[in-house]
Amino acid sequence: MPSIDLTGKVAVVTGSGRGLGLAYAHALAAAGASVVVNDVDEAVAEQAVKAITAAGGSAVAEVVPVGTSEAADRLVARAVEEFGRLDILVTNAGILRDRVLWKMTDDDFDAVITTHLKGTFTCARAAAVRMREQGEGGTLILVGSPAGQRGNFGQTNYSAAKAGIAAMARTWSMELSRSGITVNAVVPVAATAMTETIPAFAPYIEAMKQGEPLPDFLRKGEGFGTPEDCAALIPFLASEAAREVTGQAIGIGGDKVTLWSHPQEIKAAYADGGWAPDTLADAWPTSLGAEPQTVGVPAPKFPEA
């Protein structure tokens, strides 16, 4: 396996002022890539740039909310103006507007879809245009979520966006293969500002902040760790070691890395001449309905006190 060396490569990481995005930006810079840090908060973005450069990396900030074509064009243009090219895009920017279906407003839905789904689309499109013009391949890394793979209570907008992102990764991996551009979705699980709000995780995250390690049942059993634990996957996917890895959804967190399955038919039943409502009703309990698929992100399995 070749060493991970991204010297000479240029990356854009959206939503990289803090949390997972910041960890991704640090990991890419540590591997030698020059990074365009993106955030909506100028102070946060500049602080991220200072931290990366203080560690010996190369980075600049571009402050713009993703979602529009204009924002995507600005990010790609900044990479080209500052560093001469673009090789890696990580679409990490996101927001939450959690509500159950009957309480979710149009604004709640539109804001999350615009940032996550349209933001991923517009940034990936702009990056793909540039990478194809360069003619040297490239890497698109789209950040998904377990909510997009399995659904999550109160997250209609977020789950839909993240499911769409995984579908776009599969589609774009086919469309961009002849250009040498790999496209993968990553599914991180980490202690972030969002997971701090989950009561079951909160005491462990607070203990971690005080310097205590996360227990093995979280790091291994749940695949739950720090943002830095998730970051190793990003330079790997951007490297020559992963040139044949494309169209995949890859989970990472704590000490665990996983490969998510693609949606596929798992069982079939047949009726000569086709189905009618009553024959479906008769057959369902003993055929397709015998083992229905589960939904939702499984609750953590905490050890008994």
Task: Describe the protein's architecture and organization.
It is a single chain. With 305 residues, the chain is of the alpha/beta class. The chain has a single domain, classed as NAD(P)-binding Rossmann-like Domain (Rossmann fold, 3-Layer(aba) Sandwich). Helices cover 41% and strands 14% of the residues. The chain has 11 helices and 8 strands. It has helices spanning 19-30, 42-54, 69-83, 106-134, 146-150, 156-175, 202-209, 216-221, 227-231, 233-237, 277-283; strands spanning 10-13, 34-39, 58-63, 88-91, 138-143, 181-188, 249-253, 256-259. Helix 4 (106-134) runs parallel beside helix 6. The longest helix has 29 residues, at 106-134. The chain is globular, with a radius of gyration of 21 Å. The model has no long low-confidence stretch (mean pLDDT 95). This is SDR family oxidoreductase. Residues 285-305 are annotated as: Disordered. Keywords: Oxidoreductase. Belongs to the short-chain dehydrogenases/reductases (SDR) family.
